[in-house]
User: What shape does this take?
Amino acid sequence: MAAFPGWPVTLTQGPITLRPHRRGDAQAWARVRIENETWLSQWEPTSSVPWKSRHRSADFRAMFRVFRQATRAAAMMPFVITYEGQFAGQLSLINIIRGAAGSAVAGYWLDQRLAGRGIMPLSLAMVIDHAFTAGGLHRIEVNIRPENSASIRVVEKLGLRQEGYFRRFLHIDGDWRDHMGYALTTEDLPAGGMLAAWRQGTSATHRRALPPD
Assistant: This one.
């Protein structure tokens, strides 16, 4: 995918790797998405197409082309998350705006079987540190439905602040849904970066996702 400040890149901490998508990810993506329909569909944009019919290998290839176009325009950093070498989810910085804004919006999802291991907070911490250094960005936003407690825990663990409440913000799972807006700027980063702060404050349970000290 096209190069621009901070992209492409591979980020690794212990068993967790974030990297650009590959064409060969199609089957793993389709399998994990289909297996996680109940877990994920309630947070996904409304579609008239049945879940399985829009999560085929061909749909991945169409998504891959969209990602390639977006990276060519320097508007997106789309990452695959792998855990112990296996496809585990996705984390993307989208709507990247340069110039006076220097901002992006983060979105993510994870295989339910891997939830609760600290994988997503650690992944988001890595991406935030990278976006604010090599990526040259100043602000990252995350918009989350109030009902999505798992996703809210991710941003709250990392110390993102809630800045707004957006009424009927996006059409999700069949209706216009409210969202809570969280954000972080470079001035908010703790000394040593987000990843270092996350590691220092992580519980023993979550440290299973981290490399040994």
Notes: The two ends are 34 Å apart (CA to CA). The mean pLDDT is 93. The first helix runs from residue 26 to 35.
